[in-house]
Predict the structure.
Amino acid sequence: MVGNEITSAEYIKHHLTNLTFGNHPDHGWMLAGTAEEAKEMGFWAVHVDTVFWSIGLASLFAFYFYKAAKKASAGVPSGLQNFVEMIVEFIDESVRGSFSAKNDLVAPLALTIFAWVFLMNLMDLVPVDLIPWISSVLGIHHMKVVPSTDPNVTFAMAFGVFFLIIFYSIKMKGVGGFVGELTGMPFQTNNLLLKPFTTVINLILEGVNLIAKPISLSLRLFGNMYAGEMIFILISLMYSAGWVMGIFGGTLQLVWAIFHILVITLQAFIFMTLTIVYLDMAHAEHH
């Protein structure tokens, strides 16, 4: 840091640091003032900004969809009702096209995932310095506003889906059927001498395939959104390099923001679609 100015590295580090609350080994329970203090708090520290924005966006989604449902009428629909009906129809078609079993939970779950992930991703289009600047005025050190750039969020959602996969796999096939699915495929044999070897190999292959589902869900969303946020931060550094670079940076920011609209929508759709497909696989009975 030079005077009151910060270097590019410090600027990037500041924007990528969560507002963290935890038990510091030297100072007890506190809000971390630096990334180093946040790291020293360990695994059980809480990212306050992630919790705030994710719950806030979920509440926003619930409020407007509840409002639209409460005021829905068979007459001339309002703009909000039209918008909500369009999203519901889109989700319904996606579920019908990818889910072959019957489960009344899947469509509401798909709707919640798509809308929630989309809203969290949408925060990436907010100017990178706006909310952190407002937070600094209020005395808050750090403020990350894109929950999906926090692996805690993406892994938590993926593990929630993973729990449903395990639950419905056991519910539909029984414990024996679920274990048999993990140990009986893809290699099958009636030879009693070879069967223990094929069972172990199948368990390893199917176990890796099973564990890869939540990892692929979480890392795909996190990686894409984190990269997008980093590009916005790097572009914003151009504003401090003179008016020529500022104009160039503004143009790049506009182009990237337009392209990023597609990215944030696509990532929400992929997360939702993979959830539907994985749950369909959990409901499928193999013979």
